[in-house]
Amino acid sequence: MSCHSEQVVPVSSEDKIKILLMGNPNVGKSVIFSKLTGVHVTSSNYVGTTVDYTYGDVNYKNKKGVIIDVPGTYSLEASSEAERVATSFLEEGADVIICVLDATNLARNLDLALSLREYPIPIVYSLNLIDVAERDGIKIDKDKLEVMLKAPVIPTVAIKNKGLRELLDRAFSLCGQKAETFPKQSEDERWATINEITNEVQSYEYKEPTFIQKLEYLTLKPWPGIPIALLVLILSLGVVVGGGKALRALILLPLVNNVITPFFTRIVSFIVPEGIFRNLLVGEFGILKIGIEWPFALILPYVFLFYVVFSFLEDSGYLPRIGVLADGALKKIGVQGGNIIPMMLGYGCAVPAILGTRAATTYKERIMVATLVSFAIPCASQSGAFFALLGDKSFLALILVYLLSFMTLFTVGIIMDKVIKGKGQPMLLEIPNLLLPDRTSYFKKLKIRMKHFLMDAEGPMFVGIGIAALVAETGVLNSISTMIGPLVEGWLGLPKEASLSLLLGIIRRELAVLPLLELDLSTLQLLVGSVVALFYLPCLAVFGVLTKEFSLKVSLGIGVATITSAFLFAGLINQIGSLILALVG
Ligand SMILES: Nc1nc2c(ncn2[C@@H]2O[C@H](COP(=O)(O)OP(=O)(O)OP(=O)(O)O)[C@@H](O)[C@H]2O)c(=O)[nH]1
Ligand SMILES: [Mg+2]
């Protein structure tokens, strides 16, 4: 997800025309944009992928243009942040609009299509997803539709690049022509027109439902939808946890420990004389030792497999179905089912998750989801660290950590729902078609996510490990440990070396977990350390995005709340746990 809020919106000029790419959410705008401009933007099979605009250049014959991928909107009423972006583009004006219609949902798409005609901008319609419409037995008479819309209609299959040249061709030829503007219609009038059009152009043909169509239906009903969801969850966890462990144990750890680290150690020992500098590089917390082992051998396999599975679920259209099944439970905590997607994105990384809340209709809901994500949803890196730490040593502790995370989501949700003024507005949760993910966009998305992880995570992690090496080698760690000793040793019952976790956890969430690996901890201590890490602090990048999207007050507030909970809960677990152990033992 990219944001360009600070960039200047391109204006049309003599030699460069401005094309707005508009339509309902999840109709294929971003795929069309990527294919036409060569600029990759993320597409996913659910509503609200694009919440900010992106633009890219196109050259057609000897003409130049700029296309803007506008966030999807159902209407021009601007009820969400993403919709406001869309309407502001229309008001600024453009040379031509490409309005993308979902052929499997014509009536609903026509609502926006007709409203757009009230602006003095020529429109060309792309009738997209006709492959899926055909699969479902929906037939649309394109010629009649053109007559009724009084504008060109081009049938397209965006993912297969079908019809896109022609679409661009028509867009350029319309440019400069005077658009016929239509009088503003009331909602009733508009729906009357929509009925008239669909009756005229659309027909159905009965087709024996395919396996995927049956699945579309079955995944939405509590039975067998919920068992299917549980199965998907267990399978996904199996791939991520089991696969990650195997990758780590069989390939990455041996590679790092037997080949890479010895190699660097030998070279450094040869060049750098014994002492603090050598230790910084290859000592206990050496950047060339831990700085490679932690990010690449411990975290990377889990993050990679998480995105392999998650991106697949995303593109198949399965995720919103979980939203439907979980809607009841989510409503109890004051969150509409539609917001489940940003929450699930949070298990990858909190930054896109918080940006994704822009599709939410009310401020209250945005801030609630953002807080829940920052509070108690471990990101992929942090989960990787938990799996690495607890997977081998205490499976029970691992389960307890995630159980606590769920319980916190509910408690915090309920409290916020009561405390924050305003209402969560029912959000339209649109259920997309189940599709076999498009291979090109799937791999591109996976590649981009891994690139982001490597750039966003590895850099700060290196810095963090550098700091660890420095404070360990210079003895600063000892003074810090003495200072916060009462808290760490007394209240939390952890060895004083665990204060390194607290220090590094400020930089990134997984760094609050990983230093515990080096310590010999009891099961109770593992649990306590993990609980501190679970809540502790959202990482620096999350602070940044919270401040930008909301305010400094909000991000500081969330920070104070999480850090207080971290020490409170973890300490309580330690005190109660120790008491029980003393009674039993
Ligand atoms: N089978 C099929 N799938 C398509 C077609 N066009 C797009 N898709 C898929 O439909 C989904 C939605 O595409 P996007 O490009 O993300 O939709 P969008 O309109 O940008 O959605 P928002 O950003 O949410 O407004 C993706 O999973 C695409 O791969 C098509 O013509 N045929
Ligand atoms: Mg999009």
From TrEMBL:
Domain of life: Bacteria
InterPro entries, alphabetized: Fe2_transport_prot_B_C, FeoB_GTPase, G_FEOB_dom, Gate_dom, GTP-bd, P-loop_NTPase, Small_GTP-bd
Species assigned in the record: Tepidimicrobium xylanilyticum
Name listed for the protein in its UniProt record: Ferrous iron transport protein B
Transmembrane segments: 223-243, 263-282, 294-313, 333-355, 367-389, 395-416, 524-546, 558-584
Domain FeoB-type G: 16-177
Example of a GO MF term: ferrous iron transmembrane transporter activity
GO cellular component: plasma membrane
Keywords, in A-Z order: GTP-binding, Membrane, Nucleotide-binding, Transmembrane, Transmembrane helix
Classification of source organism: Bacteria, Bacillati, Bacillota, Tissierellia, Tissierellales
